[in-house]
């Protein structure tokens, strides 16, 4: 909190999802989603504290009772209990640190730090075609497939970079107020941002949309967080494990 | 209401989004999203009443003030006003008719009516591989690209068919209670249903997920709705215009 110059956030989702606050920490793993693979890998590395950006139990507030008889969730809890793994979500505070851990980490991984400003989602990069921009993001962020709305040959210079699922209102507001050449989102609701961009273009506008995928769009932030945190906790080994893209594209 | 044996739905989103209830109807268009293209095509066909399954103004309740200075929305309203086009959303009632207009239309288009039951989302089809199932859905529903989680070679027989964006709680509950071989969704939140299926499989489970895309997953329902509605309104020409997939996959 002090390091990040943060004030307490009411109703934050950044709570312990398993384990307890008094257990001695043997090692720290940072990740996007604390999947079964990430948990098993943490056990192998003798790290009992996972810092995850996103939910553990398949809903925003990690309500374990949202779906009745959820055996997947029950078995995940058993696995966590068996190995005494604590998971802490680091979401609201993560985005409140200045600069935002996620957007800074993504800009860094995309080799855009010279164009990054903590106070704005907009980066003005040397002009490239949308096709070139897609290729650059795929290569630097390690993304195999993504979706766009736009003309692959159009020029892009002003990028609004919004990793994760910021929500339709936030995304459309950024598009509407910043007027970037391209909006780069992690995840969108198709009936919100995607349809807004489709209509914008049908009305003669030129803004494009790139949808990177949620996990892969924010993972570089949790990777960068290792370097941010390690100097502050030199006695504990901190490692990043990428939870990765869950989809096969067909 | 009477034809569908429906009771009034409180706080329904099924309201007039433009035009007024007293204007004479010159023709009816059904669609998923009333995009600028769909509106312009309606004008060409001299049809001034669009029945759309999904929002007109990029948010669930079609709040025109959600985003300040939304010039895309302002220009869409101008276009609707210029041509006196009425848009009515047909969402909540559409899913309340028995059988559900959307799921029936999709099952019909997928050539699955022999396996369709109005009271359940589960269809038991002749056994196919996941890869074959994907190909069948692409061909019958006219889908060019989609995302899956699963092994393309695994066998599928019990399909839970949930077109549209039913929400994580609903989708996970269907998966958890029905235990299908494959969950076929229109749109998912990646931190909900996708992560649930990823963990289920990492724990040794075999259920697969197919994500069709929102618009293309429900469009066959609005196409079928023409046949449902036309005999009830023989004096008015009713036509379907597909709003189509908004994305380019790269």
UniProtKB/TrEMBL annotation, chains A, B:
**Which positions are annotated as binding a divalent metal cation?**
53, 92, 214, 218
Q: Does the record carry Metal-binding as a key word? A: yes
Q: Name one GO molecular function term.
A: metal ion binding
Show the GO cellular component annotation of the record. cytoplasm
Q: Which chain positions lie within coiled-coil regions?
A: none
Keyword annotations for this protein? Metal-binding
Check the record and name the PANTHER family matching this protein. GTP CYCLOHYDROLASE 1 TYPE 2 HOMOLOG, NGG1 INTERACTING FACTOR 3
What is stated as this protein's family in its record?
Belongs to the GTP cyclohydrolase I type 2/NIF3 family.
Q: What is this protein called?
A: NGG1p interacting factor NIF3
Q: Which organism is it from?
A: Dyadobacter sediminis
